[in-house]
Amino acid sequence: MPHTPHDIFQRSSAPVTIDENLCIADKGCTVCVDVCPLDLLAIDVTKGKAYMQFDECWYCMPCERDCPTGAVKVDIPYLLR
User: Fold this and answer.
1) How much is the CA Rg of the chain, to the nearest whole Å?
2) For residue 20, what pLDDT is reported?
3) How far is 12 from 64, CA to CA, in rounded Å?
4) Predicted model pTM
5) Which residues contact 53 (CB under 8 A, 6 or more apart)?
6) Which domains does the chain have, with CATH numbers?
7) How confident is the model at residue 70 (pLDDT cuts 50, 70, 90)?
8) Where in the numbering of this chain does the 4Fe-4S ferredoxin-type domain appear (predicted)?
9) Per-residue pLDDT tens for 1-11?
């Protein structure tokens, strides 16, 4: 069974993770996508959920802070805390 880049990225240790059970992008929410200054987040139109499409995060946190359901989590590396 072939895997899409989205499937493979979801299994990696990405700095930004989206809890698909809490994400309401399927209801029209795009807050995390809109606030990311690097345009790292996108909406998977087939699933109706947000995901991190590139691993270039600056850990600036607006995606986590502004998410209305708390679906977005940013894992800040230990040395940057």
Assistant:
1) 12
2) 95
3) 19
4) 0.78
5) 6, 9, 40, 41, 42
6) 5-74 (3.30.70.20)
7) very high
8) 14-46, 48-77
9) 555 655 545 54
Is the pLDDT confidence value at 50 over 80?
yes
Q: Which residues lie closer than 8 Å to 6 by C-beta, 6 or more apart?
A: 44, 51, 53
* Distance, CA of 78 to CA of 39 (rounded, Å): 24
Mean pLDDT of 36-57: 93
CA dist 30 and 23 (Å) reads: 10
User: CB of 76 within 8 A of CB of 69?
Assistant: no
* 40: nearest Cα among 24, 25, 51: 51
Long-range contacts of 34-39 (CB under 8 A, 24+ apart): 35/62, 35/63, 35/66, 36/62, 36/63, 37/62
Under 8 Å between Cβ of 23 and 69 = yes
Total count of residues recorded for the chain: 81
